[in-house]
Specification:
This protein is 38% helix and 14% strand. The chain has 710 residues and is of the alpha+beta class. The strands form 4 sheets. Strands 1-4-5-6-7-8-9-10 form an 8-stranded mixed sheet, with helices on one face. The protein has a 6-stranded mixed sheet with strand order 11-12-13-14-15-16, covered by helices on one side. Bound molecules: zinc ion.
Length: 710
């Protein structure tokens, strides 16, 4: 990013200048009316709101309130079936509002969301989002049907227990161990009867479905073969790979999508749509011991007949639904939620295939949905009765198919990625269904995602083909618009007229051109805040409010503890680790370097040739170079300690754990090219705090980051 031009002279003195003129008014004989006109050139900003969590925070404007009021009459609030379904089968609410982590901090806090129950309505929360967050305030143990139970509200997802012959089959196990353990305890107090967990099933790769596994089973019991852990094929590859290469960028963007820094408050974070939030306990991973391989596979799990339907490339790269014929119970994993899911994920992820997703829903409907009497899933609440199941399955099927087809219909008529979100709308009959509302994906960002999937980022206008970077184009805009004062005045006027999208257009240019212009950042923050309040979709709301926060305050300081779970690092292949080293390497520091390393890991029989040439680090599995500069022999189990940052490669060589032959110096050369990614890099200009606190890690440690829940 370019150094911003010094702006102090242009900014604050304007007010002083006017004040000075007023004081000297008589001397210069400037008519009072003209002064008043000058002074009012910048319309008055909104005053901070008492009770807002941020000293610069504002109340929703009358325009925002109007939009939220309109939603109250436009949306189907008379359809209250979700509330009936959400409450049905409650066995016991969870009494402790907080679940403590083993580390002594709070892992899960439902206290923070009780404010949602206190008042009928909030003028700073979209009524549809408020409704969804109220529904997600369920917190306790529920019976789905006799023999199937769910603990809900303990994390972003549900944990489900199904009665087997010898114990309980746990289906999806939350993000971290502590809430999973608390869920198991509550379950045992009321239903479990002291029987053990007899099997674990992971429906898919996202972290909220497997990270809590240590809370309910002992890894030794899994390794000994006593407890099977069942997952769809290729589970491990996709679980690890999806979050590594762009992991730091994804984690930073999670601050926006998941509003990580926003207080739980009417003007801040109000839930995530899928659930109230992500627990902060101890994540872990026990690798599956049984993979479902066939498109439809029928097996007995602890005496219960289960029909697994693989659904690759839907909500996750690998996922599966399950039908339990004896109970006519259909488990839809995360392929069906109460709302529209993400096609495009704001934290960043490869765009999903909505047509494929729709087809798998269709298949589930025709295979099982015609006879199922209960449908349950890893988020939200079950649906009972075949008619209701068919209604939801058909609606969800059409939701994703419509999004794919109608967006491409427009694209084929020339509507671009930069227009589609203002053009595409769901059909009214789907807009009327709560289960099609944008509680995770929004029609806006999903429709752009569909175009991205098929046509990519370019709208085919050459002016956007090789555009200037924002910081390089913005100064010209500012100059041509007549300077910062004019933009601030017009921006304030647009803000005061409720024209927030126009205001953001010009104020963003000013902030890009003048990152130190706090008046510009504050006004853009005011604009973002109103747009945030207006959103039904929590990811959009959080993103606007997170940017608001950072524009006003800067990116907060603090240690970012490395949250990589040792289990996740252990599950990572050596090839993936080496690939990631190639990403961590700053190519510019490797100019002129050239060497070849043979890496041999005897305990698992793998070998790699690693080459640094053309300032690029590559690796090839299964090959060795004839005359390498260095041969490094280390057991994979020992290498893992280095991958986790527990022991440096130097120390491994020094104590003889790693054997070397040749020039060890190339390792130092390689280490000198490695960069630690800053977990708090700047998104909005001028928000970076100056004493960045990036924890130092070993040059080879891999920062996998938290596997993203979804
Ligand atoms: Zn999930």
């Amino acid at each position: 990013m370019k150094n911003p031009p010094a702006q102090n002279e242009k900014m604050i003195p304007r007010r002083h200048f006017l004040g000075g003129l007023a004081a000297a008014g008589t001397a210069f004989a400037i008519p009072v009316g003209m002064l008043a006109e000058e002074a009012s050139a910048r319309p008055q900003p909104a005053q901070p709101l008492k009770g807002h969590f941020h000293p610069k925070g504002k109340a929703p404007s009358k325009f925002t309130i109007e939009i939220l009021e309109k939603a109250k009459t436009a949306l189907p609030f008379s359809d209250t079936r979700d509330f009936d379904e959400q409450e049905r089968g409650l066995i016991a609410p969870m009494k402790d509002m907080k679940i403590m982590a083993d580390g002594g901090h709070v892992a899960w806090d439902m206290e923070e969301f009780q404010f949602l129950n206190q008042k009928e309505e909030f003028d700073s929360i979209h009524p549809s989002l408020h409704r969804q967050s109220l529904l997600n305030n369920n917190y306790g143990l529920y019976e789905v049907v006799p023999g199937i139970y769910q603990v809900r509200g303990f994390d972003l997802a549900n944990i489900t227990f199904i009665k087997g012959k010898t114990g309980w089959i746990a289906y999806d196990v939350l993000v971290t161990a502590e809430p999973a353990r608390a869920a198991w305890k509550l379950f045992q107090e009321h239903v479990g009867g002291g029987l053990p967990v007899s099997a674990v099933i992971y429906s898919h790769t996202h972290g909220d479905h497997w990270g809590g596994v240590h809370g309910i089973v002992d890894v030794a019991a899994v390794r000994s073969g006593k407890i099977p852990v069942i997952a769809p094929r290729n589970f491990l590859d996709h679980t690890i790979a999806e979050n590594v290469f762009a992991g730091n960028a994804m984690n930073r963007r999670l601050f926006y999508q998941y509003g990580s820094l926003l207080p739980r408050a009417p003007h801040g974070y109000v839930g995530q749509g899928l659930g109230q939030g992500i627990s902060r306990g101890t994540p872990g991973l026990i690798a599956p011991t049984k993979l479902i391989e066939k498109p439809i596979e029928e097996i007995e799990v602890d005496g219960v007949k289960m029909v697994f339907q693989l659904t690759p490339n839907t909500e996750a790269p690998v996922e599966m639904n399950t039908y339990i014929p004896e109970k006519k119970a259909l488990w839809m994993a995360e392929n069906v939620i109460n709302g529209l899911h993400n096609i495009y994920t704001l934290r960043g992820a490869p765009v999903r295939d909505p047509l494929n997703w729709s087809k798998y829903l269709s298949r589930a409907l025709y295979l099982y949905g015609m006879e199922a009497e209960v449908m349950f899933a890893s988020h939200h609440w079950p649906r009972w009765g075949n008619a209701r199941i068919q209604e939801v399955l058909r609606g969800q099927r059409d939701l994703y198919a419509n999004m794919n087809n109608q967006v491409l219909h427009f694209a084929n008529q020339g509507v671009t990625i930069n227009q589609i979100h203002n053009v595409y709308e769901l059909p009214p009959s789907l807009q009327d269904k709560w289960f099609a509302r944008g509680y995770h994906g929004s029609p806006q960002h999903n429709s752009r995602g569909v175009i991205q999937r098929f046509l990519g980022f370019w709208d085919a206008n050459p002016a956007t083909l090789i555009p200037l970077s924002p910081a390089d184009s913005a100064p010209l805009y500012v100059e041509m618009m007549g300077g910062p004062e004019k933009i601030l005045a017009r921006g304030q006027q647009l803000h005061n007229e409720g024209k927030y999208f126009l205001a953001q257009e010009i104020l963003d240019k000013l902030v890009q051109a003048e990152p130190k212009n706090q008046a510009a950042k504050d006004l853009l923050a005011d604009v973002f805040e109103q747009i945030g309040y207006q959103q039904e979709n929590p990811g959009l709301r959080n993103s606007y409010l997170a940017a608001t926060y950072e524009l006003r305050t800067g990116i907060p300081e603090g240690n970012t503890a490395d949250s990589s779970s040792p289990d996740v690092v252990r599950a990572m292949s050596t090839g993936l680790f080496l690939d990631f080293l190639g990403i961590r390497m700053d190519s510019r520091k490797a100019q002129g370097m050239r060497f070849t390393i043979n890496l041999i890991t005897p305990d698992n029989g793998e070998k790699f040739v690693v080459e640094l040439e053309n300032a690029t680090l590559t690796n090839l599995e299964g090959f060795l170079a004839k005359s390498p500069d260095l041969t490094l022999t280390i057991n994979r189990s020992d290498l893992e300690k280095t991958m986790m940052g527990a022991k440096t490669l130097e120390a491994q060589i020094k104590d003889g754990t790693a054997k070397t032959e040749g020039d060890v110096g190339v390792l130092a050369k390689l280490a000198s090219t490695m960069v630690d990614f800053d977990p708090r890099f700047e998104i909005m200009p001028g928000t970076k705090s100056f004493a960045a606190n990036v924890p130092k890690v070993d040059a080879y440690e891999v920062a996998v980051g938290e596997p993203a829940p979804e």
